[in-house]
Design brief:
By secondary structure, this protein is of the alpha+beta class. It is built from three helices and ten strands, in the order αβββββαββββαβ. The radius of gyration is 52 Å and the shape is globular.
Length: about 250
């Protein structure tokens, strides 16, 4: 059917007006959708940030709590097991070579040479052809018997002291005469290095009190050695006072 031109133009105008009326609705709908998407993204991003803080924050607090818990625990363990250098002194031990005050003394007798002398229980006793060597780790008691010289003082100066000078660390401290009981003995004090330890090779600086005890036909040379700085005066006095010729 043929539509007049005027009528066709009216239809075109009507369609154009309708299309124009629809376009704003579509633009608004597209804008609304875009706004929703942006809001959703913003909400997602906003929720992710608090989530990260929520997870991280307890972790940090937990770490701090662990540190606070471990601190006192480590301190308690350290005090429960003191370091060796901090261990309390119980008074039950003695320095190397020190004779304790409650030491028990035994009597050594040498029948063939005719003498006896006391020594500390537990010290090692080694009988020699000319006497005896008795010792612990660093202290010692030695008796050497020789023929009685006509002049003991001259024997000491000309024979005994020169022999001592060849020993490691020798240094004469004094030479005198001391009273032991009712007798007077020639006496020499000197420094020396102890014999080398068979395991470590260590030599201990020591002080020796050497007594010359004359008998009827023999001379006993009694040497009492102790590490420097160790006080064995009382024990050594008992030893030399106990010496007897048979």
């Amino acid at each position: 059917m043929n539509i007049p031109t005027s009528t066709a133009n009216l239809h075109r105008v009507a369609r154009r007006s309708t299309a124009d009326n629809r376009r704003p609705s579509r633009r608004w709908l597209a804008g609304a959708v875009l706004s929703i998407l942006v809001a959703a993204c913003s909400g997602s991003a906003g929720s992710a940030t608090p989530s990260a803080v929520a997870v991280g924050s307890p972790s940090a607090a937990s770490s701090d709590a662990l540190t606070e818990t471990e601190g006192p625990s480590a301190s308690t363990d350290a005090s429960a097991v003191p370091d060796e250098s901090q261990a309390p002194d119980t008074g039950g031990s003695t320095a190397a070579g020190d004779v304790p005050d409650n030491a028990v003394f035994l009597t050594y007798q040498q029948a063939s040479l005719g003498f006896s002398i006391q020594y500390v229980e537990g010290w090692q006793v080694t009988t020699q052809p000319d006497g005896v060597v008795i010792h612990d780790k660093d202290s010692s008691e030695t008796v050497t018997v020789a023929a009685l010289p006509s002049d003991v003082a001259a024997y000491i100066s000309s024979t005994d002291l020169p022999a001592l000078q060849s020993q490691a660390g020798y240094k004469l401290v004094k030479q005198d005469s001391v009273k032991v009981g009712s007798s007077n003995y020639h006496h020499v004090v000197y420094h020396i290095l102890s014999p080398a330890d068979p395991v470590t090779g260590k030599q201990v600086p020591s002080t020796v009190d050497r007594y010359y005890v004359p008998g009827t036909s023999q001379l006993a040379v009694v040497s009492l050695s102790t590490p420097d700085g160790v006080d064995n005066v009382d024990a050594f006095r008992q030893m030399i006072e106990s010496f007897r010729w048979k």
